[in-house]
Amino acid sequence: MKKGKFNKWLIGVDLDGTLLDNNDELTQKNIDIVRRLSHDGHIVSIITGRPFRSSKHIYRQLGLNTIMANHNGAIIHNPKDPGFISNQTGISRKIISDITGEKGFHNNVENFAVETSKKLYILKHDKWLEDFFFIEGELQVEISDSFDQCAAKMEVDPYSMLVLMKSNVSSEDMSRYILNLKNKYGNSIMLRSWQHPNVKNQIVLEINPVSTDKGHALRKIRNYYNIHSHHTIVFGDGLNDVPMFDEAKHSIVMENANESIRFFASEMTYKDNHNSGVGDYLEKWFYGE
């Protein structure tokens, strides 16, 4: 069915592993289809875990003027509309101070980084951690002398915190630690853990403000543009995209996504991210081409 000439649609897209290829670049096909959809009156919104500093060139390259979400929904804004009141949610510095001050944190943590709008506070230099936050000369890195000093130095509430656990911390220990944090701060923070991609047996703990996930962001964007979930289609490839899948009638997982993620989506792209999977799917979906 050709949908391009009928109702206005909202298209929510993740970046890494989804709209971007394996070189972190946009393919020409993806650029062309996004611009065509925008020209036809549809709303294309980037919804990414990246900070704005590492996604603004993509926004510009696509020629967008729509609302986007960064930090998995911690920041919802419109870069092209200075009159748009952005939605920014941070983690209380008091909570960060309490977490880093606990004995269990000292005993089980190898390194950590806390990001604010201007600085990345980090316990010790770590290339992977610094690359993860896309510093690119726009974010000042401040090394802390101790766990406690990091929280004391922060001037504003941070957007996110990433914790590298010691390699001897087991998955069972991690589960108990996360449960303890949830019991203490569950109303204020969201927790997610995953395996370090480069270090065997090292668990990464991600801490974000509560109610800041991609589903929350998509819902706010959808409400702003007054577009029903039945006219919303989203694309993603990771665990952080699942809340976004839940908020859209049409959730499309990438062909390159992990098997465990595919279960949560309603459909899958015909091609992977490196071969314009999003552009290919949208072209067929809207224009039958």
Would you write up a description of this structure?
- The chain is of the alpha/beta class.
- The chain has 2 domains: 10-88 and 212-287, HAD superfamily/HAD-like (Rossmann fold); 93-209, Hypothetical Protein, Haloacid Dehalogenase-like Hydrolase, Chain: A, domain 2 (2-Layer Sandwich), CATH 3.30.1240.10.
- The protein has 12 helices and 14 strands.
- The chain has helices at residues 15-19, 28-39, 56-61, 93-101, 103-108, 127-132, 147-153, 171-185, 214-225, 242-246, 259-262, 277-287, and strands spanning 10-13, 43-46, 68-70, 75-77, 87-88, 109-115, 119-122, 140-143, 160-165, 189-195, 203-209, 232-236, 250-253, 267-268.
- The strands form 3 sheets. It has a 6-stranded mixed β-sheet. A 5-stranded parallel β-sheet has the order 2-1-12-13-14, with helices on both faces. It has a 3-stranded antiparallel β-sheet with strand order 3-4-5, covered by helices on one side.
- α6 (127-132) links the parallel β7 and β8.
- α2 (28-39) runs parallel beside α12 (277-287) and α4 packs antiparallel against α7 (147-153).
- The protein is globular, with a radius of gyration of 19 Å.
- It starts with 9 loop residues before the first strand and ends with a helix.
- 41% of the residues are buried.
